[in-house]
Amino acid sequence: MISGAIGFGELILILLAAVLVLGPDKAPQTARQFGRVVREFRQTINGVTDDLKNNLTDGLDADEMKGDMDAIRRGQEASHDFIRDLIKEPEDKQKDKDE
């Protein structure tokens, strides 16, 4: 079975249709040309994918990224504490007034 949505039965049907439309002489030649096109397309896609991976990961250091993430996490925690203190402050003032 070919990977993707085409099964063996569909492949046989496509080949029979190609032989009927193109004739027994041109069908093998057309199949070879189609195979070349598919191979070149795959190579191009793989090359583009590799280039993107290399360009996107160039200059990235795992330790530096971890340090940046830790700094962001600390900033979030500090912001959370600040907001919690802001919410607590009016409650404390209200308690002082009630006493």
- Helix content class: over 70%
**Gross geometry:** elongated
Q: Whole-number average pLDDT?
A: 82
Number of strands: 0
How would you sum up this structure in a few lines?
The chain is mainly alpha-helical and 99 residues long. It contains 3 helices and no strands.
Describe the SSE topology:
Blueprint: H1 8-22, H2 26-57, H3 62-98
Structure commentary:
This protein is mainly alpha-helical and 99 residues long. Helices cover 85% and strands 0% of the residues. The chain is built from three helices and no strands. The longest helix has 37 residues, at 62-98. The protein is elongated.
Key features?
mainly alpha, 99 residues, 3 helices, single chain
